[in-house]
């Protein structure tokens, strides 16, 4: 887990109002007006706190007609919440090399749109691997994925799912047998030089 991401998450969560907002959203999606009413705060205050929570990705939004509803991204919240314990106990992988992570972030910034979609598949191997490592975070280790599900997940990022799926196999990031895919252990992945 990236140190900067973990630090940002804990800074954002260091506010009682944001924790209360997450607790309310964990029960059911709500709009900003409803949150303001329940918490007795002004809508601009709620908007400020929701913006901070959205920056970390732990809150997502969904528009229904003219109303925006907010909900908790439970999977990410759980990863970030457990991240500190995993790092402290030595079970987690911490990316502390700021130069390396900075370079990777810059490369990802060049190839990903603001909403996380892949603009183009990088032709240079190193950059392509950085993008593939990023996309592979979408898959759970130990889980088996049918080809259709792999395609659907990749399509969220780029329409050429066949090329990206093939790159996962060629770079030993995934194993395929009978059209069933599984994430390989990171030790087997092609190394980013």
TrEMBL record:
This is ArsR family transcriptional regulator. Residues 1-92 form the HTH arsR-type domain. InterPro entries: ArsR-like_HTH, DUF2087, HTH_ArsR_DNA-bd_dom, HTH_MetalResp_TranReg, WH-like_DNA-bd_sf, WH_DNA-bd_sf. Transmembrane segments: none annotated. It comes from Metabacillus indicus (Bacillus indicus). Coiled coil: none annotated. It holds the Pfam family HTH_5. Keywords: DNA-binding, Transcription, Transcription regulation. The keyword DNA-binding applies. It comes from the Bacteria. GO terms for molecular function: DNA binding; DNA-binding transcription factor activity.
